[in-house]
Specification:
This protein is α/β, with parallel strands linked by helices and 157 residues long. The chain has one domain: Glutaredoxin (3-Layer(aba) Sandwich), CATH 3.40.30. 36% of the residues lie in helices and 21% in strands. The strands form two sheets. The chain has a five-stranded mixed sheet with strand order 5-4-3-6-7. The longest helix has 16 residues.
Amino acid sequence: MRPTAALGALAVVVAACGGGGGDSRATLPDLTLPALHDGAPALDVGALRGPAVVNLWATWCQPCRKELPAFQEVSAARPDVRFVGVDIAEDPGKARDFLADLGITFDQFLDDRGELTDALGTAVLPVTLVVAADGTVATEHVGPMSVGDLEQALADL
């Protein structure tokens, strides 16, 4: 790739991610995701305000399986923070069984068409977003997070 093309591509990525100086931060996409559990309300992703933690996961993702208990632990210790899980493109029954096996009880939603991952431009899981009070994404983390990682991300809000 020529240097000017590489710089142009980098500028597009930085702009799309809300980078590039100032206090500009990305906002969540305008999507509505159905609840994973029957009868629970849907999630208006774009209207989500923090402090909140949004975790994108799947049952086939081993790092997701490893990190979800940490999210459960921190969610139980931090009732002031809304924790939201989003299963990506899977059978709801399989996802519910997976969560039950792990003892995960915080709010869960289903992105059955992968719209959220597409809007965020991510092709890997897990992905965690820490959302500030104004609805902007304060932190985006790709890969598994520990209890300590989550506590640090929340302390940085």
